[in-house]
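Service request form, structural biology core

Requester: graduate student, group of Dr. S.
Request type: structure prediction, single chain
Budget code: on file
Notes: please return the result as structure tokens.

Sequence provided:
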Amino acid sequence: MQSLLERELVVVTGKGGVGKTTLAAAIGLLAARQGLRTIIVEVGDQSRLPDLFDHPARQPGIETALQERLSSISIDPDRALLEWLQALGGRVSGRLLASSGTFQYFAAAAPGAKELVSMVKIWELTQGRRWQRRAAGYDLVVLDAPATGNALGLLGSPHTFGAIARVGPVAGQAQRVRELLEDPERTAYVAVALASEMAVTEVLELEDGLRRQLGRTLATIILNGLLPQRFTSEELRRIAALSANGDPHGEASIGDGAPPASKTPRPAAREKALIRSAGLAARAVHERARLKHNQVARLRRRSFDVVSVPFLWGAHVDLAAIERVSAVLGRRL
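Core staff response, request fulfilled:
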């Protein structure tokens, strides 16, 4: 089976708020530490990766070195279009192209023009021979794609414009991007989700959209923030007994009066209440984890490759957290 990191492009998407950027960063870090020259791409006016790696944000469209063999870029569609037109126009200056009617018409074209330009730029990053002669190519491009619906629109833009412009440089470039996206040996699709019914349902919709638009399927589903199942059936039985009577031995509690001399003294009322609360909290944690693992089973019944990332406790996501997630992915991908 071909490894996820043996592609030219890995597209990471899923429902908004599930940790796509964190997982894209972790995949990129894993690839870089395995010796691949890697770039993580953000789109849609996002530029969060430099901050995650403790670097100042740079101007959109500029590649930023994050660590050894790892870079990031936030795509600026206007700048990417200018670079594309310069590549098409040879020695024609960008300023002249920018002032031409063709540039202005394309920039204000039907919805989806900027998405196509973004995809063309992503394609360019996968090439050994770049538009700018001094720019080096990358072994792997990791796309931190928008949320599911917008991601499908982004990925479908080459088909849309290929149908409009059937001949010429735009049609040819759209076809090259489509070939990249449709080739399972060159591109892999990764869905990130929380283990909730709504997020998993959106993953299934993403799978349907990929099949319909590109004839592709998800290579991997990463379930983020999965809680462990901490208790056995016997432990749950004992927890239930504790919750019922507050007795650590699971015995029926007696009245508040002094216990018989032959009996071990029972906990005070406050200690009993604390034991009951702890038991109920443990039961609630188990039930929450059980519901999440039911969603894991739901995906595995559909024969998806599912990778789980445990819940990480912390005030915010920082580089240390990304490194921990990357280490988990390194063991499981």
